[in-house]
Fold this sequence. Notes:
Blueprint: E1 57-61, H1 66-83, E2 86-90, H2 96-103, E3 112-116, H3 120-124, H4 148-153, E4 155-156, E5 159-160, E6 162-168, E7 171-175, H5 186-196, E8 206-207, H6 213-220, E9 228-229, E10 234-235, H7 240-253, H8 262-270, E11 276-279, H9 284-290, E12 294-297, E13 310-318, H10 327-342, H11 344-354, H12 361-364, H13 371-382, E14 384-385, H14 396-407, H15 413-427
Parallel strand pairs: 1-2, 1-3, 8-11, 13-14
Antiparallel strand pairs: 3-13, 4-5, 6-13, 7-11, 7-12, 9-10
Helix pairs in contact: 1-10, 6-7, 14-15
Amino acid sequence: MNEKRRTLLKAVGGSTALTALAGCISTGGDGSDGSDGSDGSDASDGSDGSDGGSGGTARLWVDLSDAEDEAITGYIDQYESESGNTINKEAPGGELDQQLETAIPAGDGPDSWIWAHDWVGRFAVREDPPFLYDASDDVDVSLDSYTETARQAAQFDGSLYGLPFASETVALFYNEDMVDEPPETMEEMVSIMDEHHDPENGQYGLSYPVTDPYFVSGFIQAYGGNIFDEEELEVTVDSDACKRGMDALETLSEYVPSDPGYESQIVAFADGLAPFAINGPWELGNLQGEIDNLGVTTLPTVDGNNPRSYSGIQLFYFSAMLADAEQSTVDATTGLAEWYTTNEDVIQTNAEEQGYIPVLADVVNNDDLSNEVQAFAQQVDHGVPIPTHPDMDSVWTPVTEALERVFNDEQDSDAALDQAASEIREAL
């Protein structure tokens, strides 16, 4: 499995504890970061391009698995042929946000990059130098083409900093050889886990990274509480509602392997040692290769409440490099994002082959999506986008450490959330 592809939250607030999630959606594979330069840059000059034949050139940075990289290379070739523009796709290596932190101030950054939306807030408030470009006046596509959640994720304080093409969240995987009917409620799930949980003999009820805030956010927020209230800009992880959610999470924690780390957890399910796993669509490819009869469903309800899991929205970001670029470069950059994110064939194929959860409204509402992708899409509807406000940077590490203390029986959950909230408020 590709550890590098599970780093969405690692860079948030500089935390090194949050290394368990994909920075971009991945269905697994052995995932190197691809090429050391452009591998999609040869444009066809025989197109009937929208810019009248005088195509522009743009740089796109990506951090993708091998399968994803191969797919987007083909799409870029198609876009170049149709538009007459040239897209130099590069994999800069290392952590993408660190590369951007170096390259953009030096004037050597990309015109666009692909990543989840959680960077929008902290990059949008950067002024010296700016990191993002407001493309509101350059983009022709209607934002109504995307789901409401996706539209919100691409904007900050009224500015448009990217275009969305997919979403991700966690849902419930189950082994159909071990589970007759997927559970709809927590009580039903617990009953099935009880049948299989036998840790002394290496059997478990559940595979779940229970000390990662992203993965457990759905249950903590199941009763309507928010780990961080973005509208009011308040830390609310110590609310009564979140504490009730922690009780549900603690119930699940009793059924996981003793090592809460990502790899230890997912391997238990992949090896057939647990009937359930809670994980994201980036594991679909891996798990379908390991488990003959794999099912996916939404997270079980808790006292009638759907768990409100965090979701990430994948964007083509618009870089501040565009502010001083030639108009042809701006057109090439925004043109690719428009073409890719609104192309129904691209979005449908990505859903089928990469496990991407569509956010293009016309695709979300059709009946051609696989059962697995539909389950993830339904869970996205139940959940909430990761807050993009820069204050969220201060939330991840204290909550992670609180979850670790609870899991290790070092502190009860109410006290742990109280301490986390106090640490966050002090940092703010």
